[in-house]
Amino acid sequence: MKHGITLIELSMVLVIVALLVGGVVMGRDMIWAANMRSALAQIDEYKTASHAFKIKYGCLPGDCVRATTFLTGTANGDGNHRIGGPLFTSVESHLFWQHLALAGLMSGNYSTSAPAPGNQYVAGVNFPHSKIGDRGGFGVAYFGDYNHGTAIGGGWVFPAQYDNALMLGRAWSDTTSRVPLHPTLTGSEALQVDTKVDDGRPAYGKVVSWRSGNYSGTCLTSSVATSAFYNTLNSTVRCSLFFTNAF
């Protein structure tokens, strides 16, 4: 005689399914947390390498006006203490990584030329991969002091002391921008990074987000600094981050 499934048996099945799903979610969160720690360790590595370069050679990597006198297979910067320039098209943003790698201060082999096909600058070729993010990478560019109206980026950035900033993002889909401007994180992921390093607020502190425009979209709840928070309800990749005054 056949019997249908009992409520107790059904309950046990549901409990097992819940445990499995919970385990998958917990495992995914643990992997993300580990990758985030690795990405933050990358940032510390780049800051340490840049500082060591300045001590050894007396100039800023990427910007160094006499790099070719002690490094081979590279080019010189303009020596104005700014890495890159307006519109993110300066080769210095790629020379920064090339100088550090050629000096033996970081691993990798970085080119200032865009790879074919497409001729678009990409992580792993022109700048380092990030341990987190959707095809994420790290870029460097000078943004200036937006608190006093001298920053590059106009109304797309929040008022902050950016100077030579480190960016976490994805390569922009054009053939001119040499830094990863495109979103690479969800709002929840960006919040976790900001909270771990800084204050969790996208408009303030050492870690900030784009204010508006194509680079942020729905990453934030508002473009007004005082009411801007990371949009954790949107699970799509819409965020990229600045680490201000990094070098």
Q: What features would you describe in this structure?
A:
- The chain is an alpha+beta fold.
- It has one domain.
- It has three helices and four strands.
- It has helices spanning 7-57, 92-102, 187-197; strands at residues 137-145, 161-169, 207-209, 241-243.
- It has a four-stranded antiparallel sheet with strand order 1-2-4-3.
- The longest helix is centred in the N-terminal third of the chain and has 51 residues, at 7-57.
- The chain is globular and about 80 Å long.
- The termini are far apart.
- The model has no long low-confidence stretch (mean pLDDT 85).
Spell out the blueprint of helices and strands.
Blueprint: H1 7-57, H2 92-102, E1 137-145, E2 161-169, H3 187-197, E3 207-209, E4 241-243
Antiparallel strand pairs: 1-2, 2-4, 3-4
pLDDT averaged residue by residue = 85
Structural class: alpha+beta
Distance between the termini: 77 Å
Helix segment count?
Answer: 3
- Specify the oligomeric state: single chain
The radius of gyration computed from the alpha-carbon positions, rounded to a whole number of angstroms, is 22 Å
Question: In which range does the helix fraction lie?
Answer: 25-40%
The shape is globular
Summarize this structure as a short list of keywords or feature phrases:
3 helices; 247 residues; alpha+beta
